[in-house]
């Protein structure tokens, strides 16, 4: 128990002191996971919508791939991205290995199937009559998509939260493609993992508290957005 | 306003729609009736340009409907009311305004039309309510308001009273009939309930197996030997004519609103 | 809300947000020739020695170092693939094949620290004070006392296997616990289970106060943990930063740095964690 107390005390101390190292790590965590989630949203919502509404050849195959992708172990994603980004890999000339950009790529690949898959099911669950009704009102294809996305906004926000939660918490991919380089690619999860490995459990707990605090703050804000859209009885 | 020639539609190899020749003129109010699976809703969807036929020619509002036609433009001059209201997860006002917003009508004009439509169907007091919180009858009123707010050239009704309880159904039948008459919109009304027809339409089309088997005024249609198609439907309405459930007469009825044959 | 205008403007906002974030992420990329990728082991990084030395190197030479701390196997593999510029590892038997294959050049002795066999004060296997590590492990095995191994193919683990190899023994059984984890974690398990383990002195000293383990066997030549720095061969791997790697090698064996190494850890633990050896003959160590 005193380990937890020590951790809390240390977390407090780090925050009050405005420890630059910790601040930098926390900021990078938000930047990387935030950007990865944003990209997943930009690609995943249209993709999920297309899969839910479309009737093109190969649709079922793509849907299966997306659903499988939801369960990809991060360390596997990290390994495959590394193979591509290594100096002697196909994209080695981009020199992205051990950079935050590589981490964003890996995290996007982890979050994208989640956002797309949950959007697909969210839109798929909508009353099919709504689609007919909206089309009969003379909506263009874009208007239809916009209206359906708005109608499924609760499910889609849940998808975004799920994607964000998954990537801000992962270690395997960030470690492999980022390398946990101090001042450059160290994020809260990789730093925590390192401190645990060194036996600095107090520091590790402090970092994990900061991570959970950040995740809670952002998820609360997203939940607030989500619940605003809930139909209320009067 | 609407004309079909040799229009055919197949689903899973089966011919579900086979219309040799059908025309509906401006201002006509036509009922389409038939047993389940007769192709009534399919016909409606084809006329509303929501479902392309496999073959044949279709013209709506003076435009030939073929590849490259302005389907959106046509759809924006029509309105459809379905069996279920299918309202969006927003306020009643916004639901009624939806069609107008899709057409990018300016806000001031939207306001007037929505308020008029709401009061036409007596749901103005519900304007601010979340649409999902409404009862079945109230939802359908909102759906009707949504359609009428558009002042459409053609109004399509696909069994809109089917899911309603008797009291609501009766009330709405006369209100909608009133609205249709005062607007003078061309109306296509699909139903499987014969007793609804007189409220809304002068002309009746009977469908069976994807084909039109009768077309004319209600009386004439009932008089023709299309009894086989209609008999099932009439039997269900037999209680209106004072007969009890176990029917022993062959042709079943003397329809209250129809005179004797001929 | 439905006009093409407002849909487009929402998309535009999303696009701008994306672009800004991308810029924020990619802002600080250094030129390729100024970057040096150093692959080393987690235990080396954990000692904190590199945290002290790297800033000095960066200031002196202007290179920016990316220290990738992974398992010994992975560090050497990165070297063999030309994915790192310079290596700092402590598994000589595994390093030599890279020298003969020409994957690495300029391999220089840097320093050593040593391993110890730690165990419970009660010492059920009676190994305290033994001169030879092999004898100690032999007694532990025959008495079936709990022994916790790294089990992760790290330098420490390889050293442990080396000693078992000398006995011709392949340890197995309930008494032999394979942690598959880092040194700190392994020490904690040994402490909890009141068992024996092979550990580097540095990590032991760092965690001593939380452990219920004593130093039982030390000083055997085989327990020396010998560190070499080596440059990944730029002639074999053209994408490697040759000058950067060489600069780091020369830095590690320079007199100033060797001096820093000799005093590193004294203020914290009372004893230095490493013994500088640049220029010496490897076979002379430990005598």
Q: Can you tag this structure with a few keywords?
A:
heterotrimer, A: 234 residues, mainly alpha, MetI-like fold, globular, C: 287 residues, alpha/beta, D-Maltodextrin-Binding Protein, domain 2, 2 domains, 10-stranded mixed β-sheet, 10 strands, 44% helix
Characterise this structure:
The complex is a heterotrimer of chains A (234), B (262) and C (287). Chain A is 77% helix and 0% strand. Chain A has a single domain, classed as Orthogonal Bundle (MetI-like fold), CATH 1.10.3720.10. Chain A is mostly helical. Chain B contains nine helices and ten strands. In chain B, the strands form two sheets. A six-stranded mixed beta sheet of chain B has the order 6-7-8-3-9-10, sandwiched between helices. Chain B has a four-stranded antiparallel beta sheet with strand order 2-1-4-5, covered by helices on one side. In chain B, strand 7, helix 6 (166-183) and strand 8 (186-191) form a beta-alpha-beta unit. The relative contact order of chain B is 0.16. Mean pLDDT of chain B is 84; it is low at 238-262. In chain C, helix 7 (155-167) links the parallel strand 5 (147-149) and strand 6 (176-178). In chain C, helix 6 crosses helix 7. Chain C is α/β, with parallel strands linked by helices and 287 residues long. Helix content of chain C is 44%, strand content 21%. Chain C contains twelve helices and ten strands. Chains in contact: A-B, A-C, B-C. Chains A and C meet through helix 2, helix 5, helix 7 and helix 10 of A and helix 1, strand 2, helix 8 and helix 9 of C.
Tell me the count of domains of chain C.
Answer: 2
| Largest β sheet strand count, sense and barrel closure of chain C | 10 strands, mixed
The fraction of residues in strands of chain C falls at 15-25%
Give the fraction of residues assigned to helices of chain B: 25-40%
Q: What is the 3D form of chain C? A: globular
**Which regions of chain B contain 5 or more consecutive residues with pLDDT less than 50?**
238-262
N-to-C SSE series of chain B? EEEHEEHEHHHEHEHEEHH
CATH superfamily of the largest domain in chain C: Periplasmic binding protein-like II
Query: What is the rounded Rg of chain C?
Result: 23 Å
